[in-house]
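Mods, move this if it's the wrong board.
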Amino acid sequence: MCGIYGGFPEVLAANPGQLLAHRGPDQQGQVDVGLPDGRPFVLGQTRLAVVYRGPVPSPLSRGDSVIAFNGEIYNWLELRAELEARGHRFQTPTDTEVVLCAYTEWGPSCLHRFNGMFALAIWHDGKLFLARDRMGKKPLFYASSPSRFSFASELKAFQNLEFEDVPICQELEFYFDEYTPFRNIKSMRPGEYLIFEPVSGELIRKTWWTFPEHESQIGNEDDALRTFLHLFEDSCRMRRAADVPVTLFLSGGIDSSLIQAVLKLPVTYTVQFREFEATINEQQYVLEFAERHGFDARFVVPTRADFLETFSDLARFIEFPVGSFSVFPLYCLARQARREGFVVALSGEGADELFNGYYRNELLLREDARLEREFSGPYGTLCRRYFGSELERFCRMATRHGFGGVHELFQFFEPRWQAQRSFAQNISVLEATVFLQPLLVMADRLSMGNSLEVRNPFLDHRLVEYSAKLDDRLKYRNGQGKWLLRRALVELVGSDLGITQRRVKHGLPSPVNQWLFKSSTFDRKDWNHVLLGECLKQLALTHEPKSIRRP
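Not the wrong board. Structure tokens:
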């Protein structure tokens, strides 16, 4: 895992490598590829050594081609063998060199061969190629004008940031797709690549992967379970491979418990707030699981004093609000794991999105089942007018601003909502392509702020594409989502553990509202405002007091 940056140096901060050192504390380097007109054009990288602990040129060059790479390609050994059969010879035992050779061999189509998470920059044949992984696990931002192009893993590597409100992001309370809080900086979308020709200033953007359309081809429960377990176990094993210690962020829920049931890691980490012991108690479920299966379950117990002490660090690493109270607990998990010698942690992001697992999904689908009879009855027209369409009901659930926010969300989501999909399928598409993105921002920034790499087995593209082929009843049944995952967990650990019987699973909240506003609600508006203010402050302090300008 690494931090990358590059482009015309005048657009970047004076010291981008130092500003991204937390993403890669083991090595740091920069290469000027040299444009024909004499202008400098750089690629830079900071490196966290995970797969190979020895020194590697960072960025890495082969002939006139250069790569700055952030992420992991889990099938790199298979790709290396295929490239060797085509005549390539390798100088390093790394996935980075494999990615560079794959690009020189196959061009942008090489991206489809990668199983992994990545944001990469390649200089080849006088052009810059940038690409981001399918689901957007690794970040990549850019500033673009014909003569002033640059890119970086984090916003702090740019100078002269210009703050601007984004209405749809204010409505959702997080940023996603190309949106950032700054008018002069864009994020690359998940599954997108970009080619920039610095002499002419030509910029080409293309989508190389999109979320698969649902086909509902698979309905047999036993066949679905066998195939899921085969794919999931392989995904977990691939993501355990590392030359450094590996751990797991374990809650008392289905997703992370499935990972532990497969990998049986010796040490796991769980957050438990004392303020939530009576209402959101993960410890009891994790302890029972650990005692039965013989692993060391370690608990992190954050406090208000710790939050106040680390608040500026949270803002400096996260850089913009993500609409979640999980920022602080995730930071604490990563910090503790890193302090105790771990460099990689696995985590369960993606399962809820792919398998209708959120309570908000279950709520909508339970309501839809009740309304079906009303809609087909003699007063069906009245009922449809009163209750609204599936998309209208989804938007009422998603908005944080009451009925006043429904119209804007409806207009934004309508092109993404397809009539040929079922309600459950449309929900899954929006959850996975929009609402998942801020969770992946958190997983990346708060782990890399502690120089820890987080890997997500559920987001293996094979599992993502397989989930789209499943009949709805294999995801949502009897009022609950993640039906197939629940059955898989019972298959692996039995049916008598609390984790397999638990009907309601909370997220990973923190009592920030209690600490700051004396409120026991989970309304995020005030927290978002406070965090945004501190993020802007920390970005300004990174450079000079006037480096962030409001319009």
